[in-house]
Amino acid sequence: MKLILNFGLPLLFGLLFQQFYNMVDTIIVGKFLGVDALAAVGSTGSINFMILGFCIGICNGFAIPVAQVFGAKDTDNMKKYITNCVWASIFFAAVMTVAVGILTRNILIWMKTPDSILDQAFIYIFIIFMGIPATFLYNMVSGILRSLGDSVTPVVCLIASSLLNIVLDILLVRPMGVAGAAVATVVAQAISGVGCLIYMCKKLGYLHFTKQDWAFSMRHCLTLCGMGVPMGLQYSITAIGSVILQAAVNSMGESVIAAVSAGTKISMFLCCPFDAMGSTMATYGGQNVGAKKMDRVDAGLKACIKLGIAYAILAFVFILLFGKNLALLFLDAEETEIIKLVYYFLLGNSGAYILLALVNIVRFMIQGLGYSAFAVIAGICEMVARTIAGFILVPKFGYVFVALGSPLAWIFADIFLIPAYIYVVKRLRRKFGQETPAMLKRCQKSLA
Predict the structure, then answer these.
(1) Contact in structure between 299 and 439 (CB atoms under 8 Å)
(2) Rounded CA gap, 310 and 66, in Å?
(3) pLDDT tens by residue, 419-446
(4) E strand or H helix at 385, and its extent?
């Protein structure tokens, strides 16, 4: 528990600041430019998650082989994985930027984005997507640093860039509109990535990289892609369901779009601890499976689940008491109906945070253990649930299933992930010639 907290808390602060400057964009847009501009930014949330989630997932996956060879104390392979992370990230960043730039407007139209906000939505998200190389830079470097046990440095860089983002928002949003918020976000992330890169180059100087280390290695790249692409697909497949659900929301008008936008931003901020727990479990699992310490894997999972459940209960109580006040960060007090919709959305999500805790903790642990394909299947489960909500439940029952769409997805994912984790651990124990102790059998049984 202590080890997980020491590693996870800096991650949490980093995620909080990342969400903080994303939320500042939305707050400033809502307060300075009005409900239509807020709806325009909010209508891009699911496509933003689908594309940038793929980029972030790839980088997180690239970090897993680094963590595994670090745990195994295999310095030569660690250097090859780090250098080939760079080559693979450059390739994916270039391809993603070009492809997404071409398709963005068509996707927004397919998502039934209202004509009144389409142009603003396109300008905002197009600029964000042109910053995909900055997203890759920060997440690749921070992922490598975390794999080597350093979760503090990425946070320091992110805090500095978050403060810069706020200043740029204030300076750019009034004269540039929603484009100013997008430019501020891209510039801030680029600066945090460069800061991490400079530090990493100095920190890893002791490894003495040679020209041979920087040579492209197909074997190492295939291993990296074998971890990274499934993790990226897991994010994107999950987000496809969110895109379908967002299309259903977009058909309900600007007020509902604005409410879901504000509710989603608040929820993402509150969910940062679950994301931190997931990232911690990926590194924890990768290092311990590299060292063949399966007893620690089970013990770490159990400790992290306890943390997740405790936080989920606190978050729900907080929303119950202060949810409407949080909506006022984005909306003026006279927007009473939209504030009610925000509150109902937050209640629906936060009431199921225990399910989300299990999704993140178990899924990322499985990925850290080297079974990324199972994470893709979990993503498919979430996509199916959100698709059902978007195509069937929202049109039939209305806003209630906008609020319950994500909880439904978490139920579907947990039904798959918990048996999958038990299967993975048993398989790895057989591979390493380790018996499952009776106590851990009982833990796995109770988890199931």
Answers:
(1) no
(2) 31
(3) 999 999 998 888 888 765 554 556 556 6
(4) helix 372-388
